[in-house]
Every structure is written in C-alpha cells, then in structure tokens.
Amino acid sequence: MTIDLRTVSITPLRHTFDHLVRRMGADKPVSRYIEGTMDVQPVENFHYRPTWGPRFEIFDPGHTAIRMRDWYALKDPRQYYYGAYTIARARTQENADADFQFVESRGLADECPPPLRETILDFYLPLRHVAYGGNLNNTAIGGKGYGTAFTQAAVYYAVDQLAIAQYLTRLGLTLGDEESLARGKRAWLDGAAWQPLRRLVEDLLVQEDVFELFLAQDLVLDGLLYPLAYEEADRALRREAGSAVSMMTRFQAEWFAESSKWVDAVAKAAVAESGDNRALIVRWTDEWRARALEALAPVAALALPDSSAEALARVSDAFDARAARLGLAS
Amino acid sequence: MSKIFVVLQKGDESRGIVEAIVDDNTAAELEEHPALYRVTAPGRMVIRRASIEDHLGRPFDLHELQLYLVSLSGHVDESDEEFVLSWNA
C-alpha cells in the first residue's frame, strides 16, 4: 500500500472582523492591537444622557475643541491593548521589585549620608501627589475622550502614574519611615516651594477640555517634570548619594521614554489633521509650558540648589526640540 | 538574476516582520502558504530592525528573526540594524 502525502491549503473564509474590513477596504489579517482597538467604543443609539453633564452624550467628541475626522487616527505606536500592556508591565514590575530588593539587601540606602537623604526625601516624596494628579487627569481623559485608540492608552497612562506614586512611596519607606511620607504631604500642602506646582496640578484637575488636559498634563507637565526629576536631579544626587536612588526611580525614567512615544504620536496626528487643530495645540502648549516652567523652578531648587536654573534651561531646550519635532514650533 | 527568498512561520509576530520587509523592498513579493510566509525578491532583500519595530510596536533584536525563520536563500550580511540577503552580481 502506498500513502500519498499532499498539502491541502484551506483558506479561511474571513481574515478579520467586518468593521475592520470596511475600514481597510480589504479582508486581510491584522494585529491583535488593531482588532482590540478600532471602533470598539459605541458611537450611536445612546438612549440616556449622563446625569453629570446632560449636554453631552455618553461618548461625545464635544469634550474638546479639537476636531478629528477619525478619532482612531490617534493610534498608540506601542500597540498596547490589555494583554500586551499587562504583559509589558508585569516585566517592568519584576525589574523594579528586584531593584528595590537589591537596594534593601545590600543596605545601599544606609550608605547615603543623612543630610543628603533629607534632600532626596524632600524632593521626591511630594511628587507622589503630582503623580496622583496625573492619575486622576488621565482617568478623566479616558472617561471623556473619544475613540478607544485614545482613551485606552490614557487609562494605561493613568495606572502607570499610580504605580509611580507607589514606587515613590516605597522609596520614601526605604530611605525614611512613615513620618517621611507625612512630612512630604505637609510640604505639598504648606511648603512654599511646592505651592505653584500644587496650584498647577489642581487647576488641571478642573480642566474641561479633554485634549487640552492631555497636552497640559502628559506632554507639557510630565514632559518637563520627568527629565528634571529623573535625569537632571538624579544625575546630580547620584554624585554624592550613590546609585541607590537611581535604582529606585528606574521605572520612572524608562517609563517616561516609553510613554513619550504615545504622547508624541497622538499630538503629531492631531496637529497633522488640520490648521485649526494645530493653532489650538500650539497655543495650549505655549501657555502651559510657561506655567509649568514657573511652577517647577522652586521645586528644582530643592534638589539642585546651585544649578537649578541651568538644569531647567536644559530641560526646556530639550522640550522645545521635542515640540518642534511634533510640528509645534510657533 | 536569480531570486532570493525568506520563509517565515506564520503568526502575529512574523506578519509584522513580513509587512516590514514588503514596505522596505519595493520589488518583494509575498506568497502565502499553509503555515508559512514566503517573501521573494530579485537579487537583494533588506530586513531592517527599525521598520520591524514600527510594525510590532516594541523593541526588536534582529536575532529574534531566527525564531520565525524556516529557510532562506542568498548570502547573509548581518548587523545590529540590518539583515541583508543578496547574490553576488
């Protein structure tokens, strides 16, 4: 008996969902990110209006002055959908945990001279509250924004901000104790150096325009604060305090580089959409940039008493170069 | 001129790689076989790390290509940035 082997090619009847076929004009396989993102949010047949804002539909593009023909143009270059995002963060969490354990097991925190330890705690601990503001604001973007492409990434950003607040807490407990956290909160509420920044964060909490909020918080405030706190201040403190703080803030530094890709892609797509969008975005970026730099100046001086002006100038130059790359040079 | 080709095992990751190859090599042609992608091009084919990263949305090490690579033809010239296949003219 002979057995004849042959290949039978079975072509699938469809490669992806119908709404994606309509969108692409062709039936071809697409990534999990696209399948889990495009046109997921309902757009019609809303029966009731939200009690908190009856002028709006439940999902309403009118929460911002920015207009997009297609809100799904605001894609995330990291291609995070729930699965990809959680897998990526599980990995970063493992790294961060290992870093903290290393610092604790080798007693690296004890090598840091006590007066410098106070400086580190005074500078980093109130930033927990800034990160919590970032969490609330991005949750608001996730709630009031339009289109799953934009809103799901905003929610991931919000959760990351919560993680950053928690890593800062852990840093505080490693270098200090519970009293250090309480002192950080008192500085945030009453310390003169923190009041301009607190005012900025609290003004952002009541910002109505959802895209302006995104630009002010994610592009401008975080775009200036993270390079200042986790590059400039970190580099200066490391010289005398050793690398313990760098290890305990590693997530923030790496997260900023990663999440900037998303922020840049969204801003770039919105700017490219129309001249009206561009004009609004340029104006908002300029206004919030000036406010954020003013608010960060006294905070920078806490960590960098001798060189805060130079550090802030480098940070704002780098920010301007980034804005120019996004087509925001006014 | 004889053609060169790469054959990759089908899957989410290799679809992104194949799209990157087709984007970067205008003369490249994609054939779909059961469980396999076969990309052919006349003379020369460049597989670029940066384009694969754009398609996959994550950092990519070109050595990772070996996980999906079933077969190839042509001389290999490999760096951190590019994986180039070609025949000597």
Give the largest chain-chain interface (CB within 8 Å). Answer: A-B, 15 and 9 residues
End-to-end Cα distance of chain A: 81 Å
Strand-pairing-aware structural class of chain B = alpha+beta
Number of strands of chain A: 0
Major sheet details of chain B: 4 strands, antiparallel
Taking pLDDT < 50 over at least 5 consecutive residues as the criterion, the unreliable ranges of chain B are: none
Strand content of chain B: 35-45%
CATH class label of chain B: Alpha Beta
Q: How helix-rich are the residues of chain B, as a percent range? A: 10-25%
Biggest sheet overview of chain A: none
Q: How would you describe the oligomerization state of the chains in this entry?
A: heterodimer
Describe the protein in words.
Chain A has 330 residues and is mostly helical. Chain A contains 13 helices and no strands. Chain B has one domain (3-86): Phenol Hydroxylase P2 Protein, CATH 3.90.56.10. In chain B, strands 2-3-1-5 form a four-stranded antiparallel sheet, with helices on one face. Chain B has a three-stranded antiparallel sheet with strand order 4-7-6. Chain B starts with a strand and ends with a strand. Chain A binds chain B through residues 7-10, 29, 31-33, 76-80, 84, 88, and chain B through 12, 15-16, 33-34, 54, 56-58.
How would you describe this structure in keywords?
heterodimer, A: mainly alpha, 13 helices, B: 89 residues, alpha+beta, Phenol Hydroxylase P2 Protein, four-stranded antiparallel sheet, 2 helices
What does the secondary structure layout of this molecule look like, with pairings?
The complex is a heterodimer of chains A (330) and B (89).
Chain A (H helix, E strand, L loop, with lengths): L17 H7 L7 H4 L46 H24 L8 H11 L2 H18 L3 H28 L2 H13 L4 H11 L4 H32 L2 H5 L1 H24 L1 H29 L4 H18 L5
Helix pairs in contact in A: 4-7, 4-9, 4-12, 5-6, 5-8, 5-9, 6-11, 8-12, 9-11, 9-12, 9-13, 11-12, 12-13
Chain B lengths: L2 E7 L2 H13 L4 E5 L2 E7 L1 E5 H8 L12 E4 L2 E4 L3 E5 L3
Antiparallel strand pairs in B: 1-3, 1-5, 2-3, 4-7, 6-7
